[in-house]
Batch of 2 targets.
Target 1
Amino acid sequence: MAVTFLGYYAERQSFYFSKYLAKEVEMGNFRSGYIKLDGYLNTQKLKVTGRVIVMAGVLLFLLLVSVSDTFAADYTGSGQFPAGGWIRWKFTGTSSGYEPRANISMGRWHTYTDANLLKVTSNEDIKVVVTSFGITTWYGFAYICDIYGNCDNSTAFSNTYKSCELDFNTYFSGSWSDAEKENTFMHEAGHCLSLAHRDGVNSIMDPDHSSQNWLNEYDKVLVNNRY
């Protein structure tokens, strides 16, 4: 999935670069030599100078930096649970009205991404705790610890994960719809899978989308890139 996404991104940038070159030719900015591009300008010979080579190099560099920064900004760090195996999760706390929603929510990550989530009754990696934590600044919280004992900080987020406690505060959720409950479970599970907040997009990781209970394609790509 990651390769597919990068290929699509690069294809888009190549298209826009080709349009840029066409405009430069139209304006008469290229004076000597010829180059033939695949795709958009496949049959057109373009007069070029060293300026084109420099511009192509700059655009390629910006493309690579942009892709790298985009991925980096979408994760809490470089850490994660070990890829390829089962990520075991356990439900504890208030089950009535919540455990079915947790089952559905964790099931969506398991079904639609490469993360293998398995519900267990012991020896869990992710512990889902549903109870009233009283008045807090959050509805849900993901508390991540790494294999070295670091917890809830940039160091923990950059190492191999040992555990994630997914806390759901029922103090606020008495009148919530099923979709809102699922949104909180899915959002915090995304943090447990190493995803950061993503604002302004139709992502389960956007804190402002309180009733979204589905994954967009980029949510899936980000998890598949790790697992």
Note: Strands lie at 35-36, 45-46, 86-93, 116-119, 126-131, 140-146, 161-169.
Target 2
Amino acid sequence: MGAAERWAKQVEAKKAIHEVVIAPRGQRRSFREAAEEFLRTRVGNRSTTAHYGYSLRNHVYGFEVAAGVAFGDLADVEVSREHVKSLVRHLTDRFAPNTVASIFIAVAAVFTDLRKSGVIERSPCANVPLPEHVESRVFVPVTLQQLDTLASRLHGPWQIAPYLGHAAGLRIGEALAVRLDQLVEGEEGWVLRITRQVLGRSGWRR
């Protein structure tokens, strides 16, 4: 095979690569679009999906990776490890390590889905260091007398809030969604079934 023929074959190969790999990327999605599609099609616990959505929309999409360039507006195939590291640094300056890890998991889940779908070859979240976990302080439970004192200082129906938090271990979103129809009578008496919660600033309930 002569030099001219080899050159011609290289040109044809590059053209094929352009048509099959590069050209389709002209219709790239933004990371926001890819993430929203991931949330719409994700199979799994709905509360986990809702948490992912809250983290992405409130803490990730709007983060500026450069002047006037938001993380959510980057093309899904163009987000680099440096972009993710920059996001983690930004979050670390504002949140506790556990919260940073929780938001990072949502971002990583999107890129894992993109990798499994063949959109990207490697997740930019791979081996990105996270802030060290800080052990929580020792929890000292309140006494019944302290609980009664706290409840007595609240107004009307709010007096039940300390008991719900202490006895049932409800998070704020779950406590805000409690209604009388969640009380059901069982063999051992009345039982409170937690079936919904309020999420986010909009007060959305599931």
Note: The chain has two domains: 3-117, 144-192.
